[in-house]
Specification:
The structure holds 4 protein chains of 4 kinds. By secondary structure, chain A is an alpha+beta fold. Chain A contains 16 helices and 8 strands. Chain A is globular. In chain D, 24% of the residues lie in helices and 22% in strands. The mean pLDDT of chain D is 83. Chain D starts with a helix and ends in a 5-residue tail after the last strand. By secondary structure, chain D is an alpha+beta fold. Classes of the chains: A alpha+beta, B mainly alpha, C mainly alpha, D alpha+beta. Chains in contact: A-B, A-C, A-D, B-C, B-D.
Chain lengths: 389, 358, 172, 158
């Protein structure tokens, strides 16, 4: 039987934690401030202990666990149909994509063929979620560095997506639309029309974003050369998603390990080589345009057929280990299920993108100013429930 | 023609006739004090409401619209709320300085009202160094921020105070230099002289490019001096929660808040006086009939119109731009604004000597 | 006693009381604030004398410049919040003596100086006149003192930079 | 050239700022773009999506009859123990004992609107309602009994 202790066989083989990181700071003239757990820039209950020398950051220590809800443990007591909805509460901004990862894992274990119609609708929903998530990130990040107005402008477009979600899934944020084997319900009759309207609107509005924020000289100066994350560091910290692609790491799961119908649509993996905050920003802005491209290809070609495969009333995964991964708006989400053949999983582990991306914050922030930290956290796009789970 | 001058001279004459001169002076002082405090209250209410409306419309929102017609009583309701709130003093704070700081901020704002000409011949004190007085007294403002930041015994407050100190001290230079451009052109520090010198056209129109440049620099520098976005590093809420007034609550916070808005009003009034002619109506050279038509609009309306236009511009900045970083803020001052304004002052001096301005 | 005299005594009291408080308080930041009030009081006396230009310059230079610099240097040292220790007896005696000597010197100067009323015409404090006086090299011009003072300030500036730079190599 | 670059920097910077100000200025003057919804005022015209998941309701027809057999499929499907079915035994006319619904206890405060109970129900007795104003002063009010008093199962539903 699989036990966690088997993973680490020899404790002495783990390299000691760098002394610098343990002691760091504490010298004369150092100022230690606690950013969070309640702080406007952390967008949640993240606690950062920052050692400062004047305005210059010497060390950042993230303290986690303030909203740990033990989702992984909870899932072990829920059946394979039930546990999917809990995952909407991890990265609540890409709830659909989280659900997709879990549904894929169960389908892989059960070897269920998902109908084409369900797969196409799933991809459209995923991409809409990605746009909505990036919209919120864009507004929140602009607010972090002091511009308030973009936040409301971003919410205007996000609201349109939420309306589409509400119409088809019945909820705006925690949709719980995917079930093992397909979708919970067929798409709403107005779905295609609404999505097309949204695309037309969005294409017009995304240029306003460039006027308001991207081209702004203050914004560019705040972003350029700030929070450098080299390609090697990005790989070694396990960063994924836009945070890693901003450093030129080829890591889009949709390209590397295509799932659903991603291998049938044309889109580009966005890579920037700037390694700084501006590169990560540009990756997300360009990714939104790619998402629109994917939706445009699919929205008129939703195949007819069932929206759900025939499944047994009680799902039981065969004994074994199953792992699937998807690309959420923040990066790679892995779902790892250990099954002993029962109706509930024996062990579930989520590999969440936010946690790994946060681990890079310290090395990015050292030596930069306090104001930069906020910009860096903005471009990492941290969602705290995703980090704590 | 209706004007504020008639009212003020009327009251003055009546007082002189009724009381002996000392009592008349004291009563006039009291009236002036009450008028300043009243103006403060009204300005505070109006500016807060204006800021919220401007912000809302730029952010495709409606803004306050629940309290009173069109939300006009919203800021009055906010004031009542702040008045009845508990004003806490944190443990470990230097209580004397902590409670003193908001009053210093307020007193500075009141003192700054003194030389401003609100309308033709309507001024508290016609100082012969009016412009210098404003830039001198406004430099005391930084002390109250430093005091508040230090006395709060909070690291965020202290950092906010340090930032704001560095910022105000450096931006005073370019604000002063751009004021000097006008002083050089006019040859006087007296605010009334400066306004009268613009009787045949405002400086921004007849001063060529140097005055336009110094106008732009002035607006940028005073935005920074009043700690408004994009230079609101002292209270940068996403970095320092609220900067120097993190620990303040209730009326003590409200005094800081009010002082900020009054300062915005004052710097905009100075900007309007120096560059846009203060209460001087829109005159063009020697188009006598046109100038005469313009004179029918009361001078106070001209003054407040110009001032509120500049306030709107500063609010427009706030709701459009992201915040600068502290080193970029100082870079902007020392690498761009200061050299440009020094060079610009030279140009303006050359123009003044050669008499090239209209 | 006329109103004008009352105002003078109020200003004088503000200046003196805050000056005494500045040297007796144990908290260094408060000392700086009391110094500030003392300087503002002096500026007030200039205003009372209707030396508006000098008063404004007093505020610009001392309040806006010097006191802010003092406060900054207090912030940058570590013990801003601590109470200063009580000084030794010898030191107290010595500083009292120094203060007394200074006072004696000033009083001596005042006693020896014959104050004569200038019957001449008062120069109007216009910008042109102030400029001519300050930069004039002929009789009655203040160009030399002006430049000497600015050299002093330059020296202080260079000193500040040297002190600020000194701690850098130790830390890195 | 250093000077040329310096001047170019200044002008391109100012231009980028003006572009942003033009955008906010546009919205400042175009009030038709305002998207604020004045919620309690527009309650009459507010249209909820027909699939909106507000709360679970047990459907009753005009004869005060529902379709719940008390099979507890929804109770089993619920991940949060939101639903508790209390059953009783009815005596059928033939004199046989038959399991029937006594109380359909629904804890709204625990419900996450995941819709799994609706899917699980074999007789389509329950559905999601579009109400969303659930705030009450006492938490106990959120625990609801969904079957109406004296309601009984519809004829023919097994």
């Amino acid at each position: 039987m699989f036990r966690e202790t088997e993973i680490v066989k020899d404790v002495s083989s783990i390299p000691p934690f760098p002394q610098d990181a343990v002691q760091g700071g504490g010298g004369a003239g150092d100022l230690i401030i606690n950013v969070g757990p309640q702080h406007p820039a952390t967008h949640g209950v993240l606690h950062l202990v920052i050692t400062l020398n004047g305005e210059t950051i010497k060390k950042v220590e993230p303290h986690l666990g303030y909203i740990h809800r033990s989702i992984e443990k909870m899932c072990e007591s829920l059946t394979y149909r039930q546990f999917i909805y809990v995952t909407s509460r991890m990265d609540y901004l890409s709830a659909h994509i989280n659900n997709h990862a879990c549904a894929l894992c169960v389908e892989k274990g059960m070897q269920i063929e998902v109908p084409d119609r369900a797969q196409v609708i799933r991809v459209i929903m995923d991409e809409l979620t990605r746009i909505a998530s990036h919209e919120l990130w864009w507004g929140a990040m602009a607010m972090d560095i002091g511009a308030f107005t973009p936040f409301f402008h971003a919410f205007r477009e996000r609201e349109k997506i939420n309306e589409i979600m509400e119409e088809t899934c019945g909820a705006r944020l925690t949709m719980n639309y995917y079930v093992p084997g397909g979708l919970r319900a067929d798409m709403h009759p107005d779905f295609q029309k609404k999505v097309k309207e949204f695309i037309v609107l969005f294409k017009r509005k995304i240029d306003e974003y460039d006027e308001l924020v991207t081209g702004n000289i203050i914004f560019i100066n705040r972003m350029k050369g700030v929070g450098m994350l080299s390609k090697e560091d990005a790989v070694s910290f396990g960063c994924s998603g836009p945070a890693a692609r901003g450093s030129g790491v080829h890591c889009d799961i949709r390209k590397l390990y295509p799932y659903a119908v991603y291998d049938k649509v044309e889109f580009d993996e966005i890579l920037e080589t700037g390694c700084d905050s501006l590169a990560r920003y540009m990756v997300r802005i360009r990714e939104m345009k790619q998402s629109v491209r994917i939706i445009e290809q699919l929205i008129d070609h939703i195949p007819e057929g069932d929206f759900q495969a025939k499944t047994k009333a009680v799902l039981k995964l065969p004994k074994g280990e199953f792992y699937t991964r998807v690309e959420t708006a923040r990066g790679e989400l892995g779902v790892y299920i250990v099954s002993e053949g029962a109706t509930t999983p024996y062990r579930i582990k989520f590999r969440s993108p936010g946690f790994s991306n946060l681990s890079a914050l310290d090395s990015m922030a050292r030596g930069s100013k306090l104001g930069d930290l906020v910009a860096m956290m903005g471009t990492l796009d941290l969602v705290i429930p995703d980090i704590d789970r | 023609m209706w004007s504020l001058t008639n009212i003020s001279t009327g009251i003055h004459d009546w007082l002189i006739q009724t009381f002996n001169p000392t009592w008349a002076l004291i009563i006039e002082m009291v009236i002036a004090g009450i008028a300043v405090i009243g103006l403060f209250a009204v300005l505070g209410l109006v500016l807060v409401l204006m800021e919220r409306r401007v912000a809302a419309w730029m952010q495709i929102r409606l803004g306050p619209n629940r309290v009173g017609p069109f939300g006009l009583l919203q800021s009055a309701a906010d004031t009542v709320k702040l008045l009845v709130k508990e004003g806490m003093t944190p443990d470990g704070a230097d209580k004397f300085l902590f409670n003193l700081a908001p009053f210093i901020a307020m007193m500075v704002a009141m003192l700054l009202m003194v030389p401003i000409a609100f309308a033709k011949d309507f001024q508290l004190w016609d100082l012969n160094i009016g412009v210098l007085y404003v830039s001198a007294v406004s430099s005391i403002m930084v002390i109250s921020i430093l005091m508040a930041g230090w006395a709060s015994n909070n690291k965020y407050s202290l950092m906010g105070a340090m930032r704001s100190g560095a910022q105000i001290v450096s931006y005073e230079l370019s604000a002063g230099l751009s004021i000097l451009t006008i002083v050089v052109l006019t040859g006087s520090l007296n605010i009334n002289d400066i306004i009268i010198a613009q009787a045949d056209g405002w400086w921004i129109f007849k001063g060529h490019i140097p005055v336009i440049i110094s106008f732009v620099i002035f607006i940028i520098a005073v935005t920074a001096e009043t700690n408004r976005a994009p230079f609101d590093l002292a209270e940068a809420e996403s970095e320092l929660t609220s900067g120097f007034h993190t620990e303040y609550s209730g009326m003590k916070f409200a005094l800081f808040f009010l002082a900020e808005y009054i300062n915005v009003f004052i710097v905009c009034a100075i900007g309007a006086t120096l560059f846009l002619g203060g209460w001087m109506p829109f005159h063009i050279g020697n188009w006598e009939s046109f100038n005469h038509v313009m004179d029918y609009i009361p001078s106070s309306i001209w003054f407040f119109g110009k001032t509120f236009f500049l306030i709107f511009v500063i609010m427009w900045f706030r709701w459009t731009f992201p915040r600068l970083r502290i080193d970029q803020l100082l870079n902007l001052e020392w690498r761009y604004l200061l050299p440009i304004s020094m060079f610009n002052l030279l140009l303006a001096t050359a123009i003044a000597i050669l008499g090239w301005h209209f | 006693m006329s109103g004008s005299t009352i105002i003078f005594y109020l200003l004088a009291a503000l200046t003196l009381v805050s000056a005494v408080l500045a040297v007796t308080t144990r908290m260094i930041f408060r000392a700086a604030i009391y110094l500030l009030f003392s300087l503002i009081g002096i500026a007030g006396i200039y205003f009372w004398l209707q030396y508006e230009f000098i008063a404004a310059v007093q505020i610009v230079v001392y309040v806006g410049g010097i006191v802010v610099l003092i406060i900054f240097s207090i912030f940058l040292t570590q013990q801003a919040g601590d109470e200063l220790p009580k000084q030794k007896m010898g030191r107290q005696l010595f500083s009292a003596l120094a203060a007394f000597c200074g006072l004696a010197l000033v009083l001596l100067q005042i006693a020896q100086h014959a104050f004569v009323e200038t019957g001449g015409e008062v120069v109007a404090p216009t910008v042109a006149n102030i400029g001519n006086q300050m930069l004039g090299v002929n009789d009655g011009g203040y160009a030399l003192p002006f430049e000497v003072v600015s050299i002093l300030l330059l020296a202080a500036l260079v000193g500040c930079i040297v002190i600020a730079l000194k701690s850098k190599p130790e830390q890195t | 050239m250093f000077i040329v670059k310096y001047i170019k920097d200044v002008f391109s910077g100012i231009k980028s700022l003006l572009v942003g100000m033009r955008r906010t200025g546009y919205y400042f003057t175009h009030h038709k773009e305002i998207i604020t919804e004045q919620y309690p005022d527009n309650r009459d015209t507010l249209v909820m999506a027909d699939r909106f998941k507000g709360e679970v309701v047990l459907l009753h027809d005009e004869n005060n009859e529902h379709a719940c057999t008390g099979c507890t499929a929804c109770e089993l499907a619920c991940p949060n123990a939101t639903i508790k079915i209390v059953t009783k035994f009815d005596i059928t006319p033939e004199g046989k004992k038959k399991k029937a619904l006594d109380k359909f206890v629904y804890h709204l405060e625990l419900c996450t609107m995941c819709n799994l109970c609706i899917i699980a129900c074999p007789t389509d007795a329950i559905k999601m309602a579009q109400t969303f104003e659930h705030s009450v002063y006492d938490r106990a009010e959120l625990t609801k009994i969904l079957n109406k008093p004296d309601s009984k199962i519809r004829e023919g539903v097994e």
